[in-house]
Write the structure tokens for this entry.
Amino acid sequence: MRKAQAKKLPLAPDPKFNDKLVTRFVNNLMWEGKKSGAYNIFYTALDRVNKITNEDGYEIWKRALSNVTPAVEVRSRRIGGATFQIPAEVRADRKISLSIKWLIRYSRDRNGRSMAEKLANEIVAASKGEGAAFKKKEDTHRMADANKAFAHFRI
């Protein structure tokens, strides 16, 4: 038996919106421990979203996150020498984690001058139900739907 699972440290809410989800997003955005730089990128991106859409950038970001959040995914399971892709519900904590990671990953892959500009464009696209992060969610759902036949192998 392994040792006890590590306790989750409580997150401090961010200074501007007083939201722990923003802190979680910024922690994923951060590189080399440069949190103030990550906050700067995030807030600049939200200002840019505000200019592009003429709506509240924070609300657009929340909508984008909810649009990218997956409900089901496939998990590999080895049964009798064959590996099956079995569709499974995504845990609440993992849903948020996946959506944050996808938004950041695909905004890094975009074309643009600064990370703030790339992130802003990906947020706007995701809020409209477009963009690479939204496509990733759709592909994940499609794969789970295609492997529905193996759902009886669920643990």
